[in-house]
Specification:
single chain; Metallo-beta-lactamase, Chain A; Arc Repressor Mutant, subunit A; five-stranded mixed β-sheet; 7 helices; elongated
Length: about 300
């Protein structure tokens, strides 16, 4: 029986309005709903007085204005970026024009792969270049808040979560969300790294996750374990397809994603490719001919 992921999709909010979620945690949601963003990008505000902003979101002046309106009488001292997809980091430029706070992130788009000598496809925010590079375990301190940087590559190679130490609250970006699983699309996305990053979270003591999209996750370890089991089941589905004589990823997708609308099949194929790459690394499958989505695969 397939694992039941405890999805959470109920979210009470209004676009452009700031909501206080917990002491020292506020959120403004951008009006950019979609199949990959759920209700939109949730920009978080940490602390009071001199605050940090996490993920300013898309290049949307209305959203930036809403963030600034929520902070009337306060100032932004830090801008933290989980990763460089177009719904997360492009808003930095407009926000910095209004507040001049420095940005903190793992690096430019593809940074985690480029340093390994792997070129990544364009499609992320190629203009974003953080003012400060952060690494796993770094501590960033503000007025009445402090965060620990938790490096979680997989969804992207530069994905960084931020743990608010005063609340044991993890701002999980797109690494772990309550409403959906994350897309892992090679070459920047990496399923092996993604699985390692999920395992990393099981060793932590965070009591709640605040993803950039959707509602909070109040039982984070149960959620992460379900995600791990789900990805393992996807790998087994690939093995089953190969045993049944389905050797091409595009042909596997309809067999594996029964409840997914066809317009999502291209994204599903990218995730199957990521899972296939992981099986190749584990030497459970081999590439018989071709490459990537056009490849023919066999059991090892």
């Amino acid at each position: 029986m397939a694992v039941e992921i405890p999805y959470r999709r109920e979210l009470d909010f209004e676009y452009g309005q700031v909501d206080t979620l917990a002491p020292g945690i506020r959120r403004v949601i951008a009006n950019n709903p979609g199949p990959f963003t759920f209700s939109g990008t949730g920009t978080y505000i940490l602390g009071t007085g001199k605050v940090a902003v996490i993920d300013p979101g898309p290049d949307d002046q209305e959203h930036i204005d809403a963030i600034l309106a929520a902070l009337e009488g306060e100032s932004i001292s830090h801008i933290l970026v989980t990763h460089t997809h177009m719904d997360h980091s492009p808003g930095c430029k407009k926000l910095q024009a209004a507040c001049d706070a420095p940005t903190y992130a793992y690096g430019r788009h593809g940074a985690g792969k480029i340093e390994q000598g792997i070129n990544v496809e364009e499609g992320g925010d190629m203009d974003f270049d953080p003012d400060h590079l952060v690494r796993h375990g770094d501590i960033i301190e503000g007025g009445d808040w402090s965060v620990e940087c938790v490096y979680t590559p997989g969804h992207t190679s530069n994905h960084m979560c931020f743990a608010l130490r005063e609340q044991k609250a993890l701002f999980s970006g797109d690494h772990v969300m309550g409403w959906s699983t994350s897309i892992v699309s090679p070459p920047d996305g990496d399923m092996s790294e993604y699985m390692d990053s999920l395992e990393l979270l099981l060793d932590r003591d965070d009591v709640i996750y605040w993803p950039t999209h959707g509602p909070c996750i109040e039982e984070p370890k149960a959620h992460v374990r379900a995600f791990i089991q789900h990805r393992q089941e996807r790998e087994q589905q690939i093995i089953d397809c190969l045993e049944q004589g389905i050797f091409n990823i595009r042909e596997m997708v309809p067999a594996m994603y029964h409840d997914t609308p066809e317009f999502m099949y291209p994204a599903a194929a990218r995730s199957v490719l990521a899972a296939m790459d992981n099986l190749l690394k584990k030497q459970r499958v081999v590439l018989a001919s071709g490459a990537g989505l056009e490849g023919e695969y066999r059991l090892a």
